[in-house]
Amino acid sequence: MIPAKVDAPQAAAGLYVHLPYCASRCEYCAFVVTTDGSSRGRYLDAVGREAALVAEEAAGATFDSVYCGGGTPSLLPPDAIAGLLADLRSRFSIGEGAEVTLEANPEDVAPETAGAWREAGVNRVSVGVQSLADAELSAVGRRHDAARARAALATLAQSGLSTSGDLILGLPGQTRESFRASLAGLAEAGVEHVSIYLLETEKTKTIEEDRRLHPDRYLSDDAQAELWLEMGETLAARGFAHYEISNWARPGREARHNVKYWQRAPTLGLGVSAHEFWGGRRRANVSNLDRYLEEISGGRRPLALDQPLTAAEAVREEIFLGLRLSAGIPAEQIEAFVVGSEDVRLWNDYEGWLAEGILERIGGNVRFTERGYLVSNGVLSRFV
Ligand SMILES: C[S@@+](CC[C@H](N)C(=O)[O-])C[C@H]1O[C@@H](n2cnc3c(N)ncnc32)[C@H](O)[C@@H]1O
Ligand code: SF4
């Protein structure tokens, strides 16, 4: 179960570090990444300097999660990961039992690297499996095949690291059968956590164009909806509970760090494009790597956004972030907002969502139904 929501100021904080280096760029990916590793040493120094700039502001806060995301953090030599984590531990109060996650690509996982990550203090690895069908993987430029992904999951299962696997529903060339096989393969590979994303085809020109030119290569919306509902049952039968739109976990294995984003707990973000929520302010670093390095070498945090939230914005966030979680949010909270909203159609629509089974009341809370998650973007956008 996800722990009960605590008031943000007292909640233990989370620390995110963005590591943008990748061996190549996958066709569907719009994250801030680079395939040019020449700045890697300077970048790691810059993250250390940024940590030093932020540390004073974070004095007094306790962190119980660290998330090294990317990019491909597993591409860095394990001793660089160890150095980074040691540096963070020396500057921030990171609790003994903190969840420390590293994102890894299957081709980087080997018994020696898994052992070295563990030594460095990593205790959770999130692997980008994406699919267990070779043709689907090569079509989007993944560097691993299904056998390599299976081997990576087996290695991690042996290593004692808690493991999560990502899959994408809607990849070009994917069929109902191949998706079912990927899902069953992942669920049976010893993972404790699964993230399943619907392919966002508008994220890159290449995939957008491919879908426009070859619509037959893509599962229809109806097929995806059918698989989505079926997938919830498959995972439930194998002991995974659906706790957030895209996330399933075995009991107690929910991603502690990611839950902080949906519960609006304080988080710091270091590195190019990193976002944070700290002291009631939303902040984001610049997304351009050269600018990030330049600003840090000038002794400044490279913030592109630094804004206090108004009380009204905070209420909206509580609704549209909280509704992503399967626990939902208190009915009185969403209803007070809907009644007071300037959007005169919102009350009618809200009643409609309940009547149509898109939202449901459970205890004193309102949440999405499994079917409702499929149309959640449209609903959530009304609260943004
Ligand atoms: C930061 S990314 C990548 C982590 C890691 N480098 C990898 O490739 O496995 C985290 C996850 O976002 C998902 N993702 C990236 N682009 C996506 C898109 N356009 N649509 C849906 N999911 C996407 C992928 O499942 C990926 O594993
Ligand atoms: S999906 Fe992962 S490996 Fe591929 S480009 Fe994006 S961050 Fe890099």
Key attributes of the depicted protein:
384 residues, 9-stranded mixed beta sheet, 3-stranded antiparallel beta sheet, 41% helix, 22% strand, globular, binds S-adenosylmethionine
Estimate percent helicity: 40-55%
Class by SSE composition: alpha/beta
Q: Tell me how many strands there are.
A: 15
Q: Tell me the β content.
A: 15-25%
- Residue runs with pLDDT of under 50 for 5 or more positions: none
Largest sheet: 9 strands, mixed
In DSSP terms (H or I, runs of 4 or more residues), the helix count works out at 15
Order of helices and strands: EHEHEHEHHEHEHHEEHEEEHEHEHHEEHH
* Overall 3D shape: globular
Distance between the termini: 27 Å
Cross-sheet strand order for the largest sheet? 7-8-6-5-4-3-2-1-9
Rg value: 21 Å
What is the mean pLDDT? 96
What ions, cofactors and ligands are bound? S-adenosylmethionine, iron/sulfur cluster
